[in-house]
């Protein structure tokens, strides 16, 4: 597939693009800064609607001129570009850029008849991550039916983007999939960061004790590209195990007292349920911190 990918210069985007290329897809990265990846790139401002639709409807590299058959079309759009969290700049600017860029990308894609749009939502939509103080989930494990009542501008922007995606899908008929991505971990971060998580499990409370390996996130994007006909859907994206080395029963006893537990959980099972992605998308995460740290 020929894929228009926004935000490929970022942490998650770089790994996703590499994985998509390994699967045989042609990826054009649209970002404000070069990625350093071996792919065609267009440097644009996604908050400018004219630049967005222009970039999606023009040649992306010199080799595309050789066929002499006009501008090639895109098979899919993957939208990862965003201000990645609160407390980088002002709250209002975070909300403005994240919502406006997403509107522009989805609007351009649907106007151009691109049939598949995948965009990054977030674990923060459930309200736990950036809450002032401790906010416990309504139940565990958290699935896609859990209430999304965010307490911060970043999570608000992601909930707004999900409404935008649903609305454009209803009027266009395109497949639009929102990925509620958990804390993205690169391979080198296991050795660097996870020993501290084992010593202090409480440090993972805001991430619902979960994570997603950047390589497995790329796999999930590829699953979305290969799965047609679902209309609008939202998916949690996380690895199968927790990011701490205590059991699920111990997590419940220490952090989720009084929180309803919807079903019996495996000892190392993630509290950020990924069953829907596995069932509908064929998502099959392969990686774990245990590959690097063992059973510590």
TrEMBL record:
SUPFAM superfamilies, sorted: NAD(P)-binding Rossmann-fold domains
Record-linked InterPro entries: Epimerase_deHydtase, NAD(P)-bd_dom_sf
NAD-dependent epimerase/dehydratase domain segment(s): 5-222
Protein's recorded name: Nucleoside-diphosphate-sugar epimerase
Pfam families: Epimerase (PF01370)
Gene3D superfamilies per record: NAD(P)-binding Rossmann-like Domain
Annotated signal peptide: none
Originating organism: Cognatiyoonia koreensis
